[in-house]
Fold:
Amino acid sequence: MAVVDQMERFAGQFGKRLVVNGVPWRYYRLGAGAPVLWLTGGLRRAALGFAFMERLAARHTVIAPDYPPVRTIEEFMIAFDSILRTEGVDTFAVVGQSYGGMLAQAYLAHRPTDVHRLILSSAGPADYSRAWLPAEKLFITLARVLPERTLKDLLAAGLLRLLRAGQLPEVDRTEMAELVSATVHKDLCRADVVSHFAVAADLIRSQVVTPASFQGWNGRIFVLRAENDPSQSKNDIARYQRLFGRRVKVISLGRLGHAAVLADPNAYADQLEQALA
Structure:
């Protein structure tokens, strides 16, 4: 079965819908056991990780939202609260991959008493200084004024560059590249791209992720890193330790690259299980 058909099967089986403050949110719930909130990356569609989530669901309840084109970090926080409340989840682990890692850090700052474990995968510290705001505003402007086809071509090219860093067989690499391109060009809209940068700018402006946000939080922190992930910096771990005020546990993803969840869902789930054990 083609990957796109497997995604559609997954969405039909596990997909749910919730309207939060007038905005429809699509999310997925599957499995049983200790709850895990899975926050997907910049492609904004959690079902892309269906194979990994089905594997993880053997031992855990997995809840994974898609991202609608909202503009503020507060809208994300309220929606995550509503989804978890609807599903009867009070305490949980949060896993954030890439862009989802930024959201995960903000959500931990929002609900520190309910999150017992934070796992960040191919993501950097979200304690951005306000010096980043001009760049984010530029990206927002470009997302609003560029021809939509050009905008989507640029977004797909950036995401594919990250995907190609992993160790995928050529056949799988081609199929995944087609899936990424189709998702960007057929499923996402201009408002999604604007949202991508607008939420990051709002997080920077509001300064919700700071060392003070995590004082008194005693949960465990894990960072999953691949050797060939171009988004990772050698300074990330030191920055994480300053942000959280203590050491973090690093788990290697080998050479699975930035998109390890797509490159090898089984291996990725195994590494994540180490952090959840």
